[in-house]
């Protein structure tokens, strides 16, 4: 039986946040790029965006180090980095879900 405990929270967060993000994007009056430019035009919202992307950069570093520690190549984390660049938390959440599924698969094959 597959143990969902390892990936339950990241998967739940990913599903809820992705659904919310895509529903907002469908209703948006402006492009994602225009929205980002508008956010960066004021110091208070720019501070939040900068803070968010600093955390995203730290998550990318963690994903890289974690993947290398598991014997994966740098190329294996590039898709997660791209998702992180566009949707910030979705990249690390997806990485955690996939990593958990890979660990489960490896444990079953032993």
What does this structure look like?
The protein has 110 residues and is an all-alpha fold. The chain contains five helices and no strands. The radius of gyration is 16 Å and the shape is globular. It starts with 7 loop residues before the first helix and ends with a helix. The mean pLDDT is 92.
Low-confidence stretches: none
Oligomer description: single chain
**C-alpha Rg (nearest Å):** 16 Å
Distance between the termini: 15 Å
Helices, by number, come to: 5
Transmembrane segments: 7-26, 46-65, 77-98
Organism: Pseudomonas taetrolens
Keywords: Membrane, Transmembrane, Transmembrane helix
Protein name: DUF2834 domain-containing protein
Protein topology:
Elements: H1 8-27, H2 32-40, H3 43-69, H4 78-87, H5 90-108
Concise structural overview:
The chain has helices at residues 8-27, 32-40, 43-69, 78-87, 90-108. It is mostly helical and 110 residues long. Helix 1 (8-27) runs antiparallel to helix 5 (90-108) and helix 4 packs antiparallel against helix 5 (90-108).
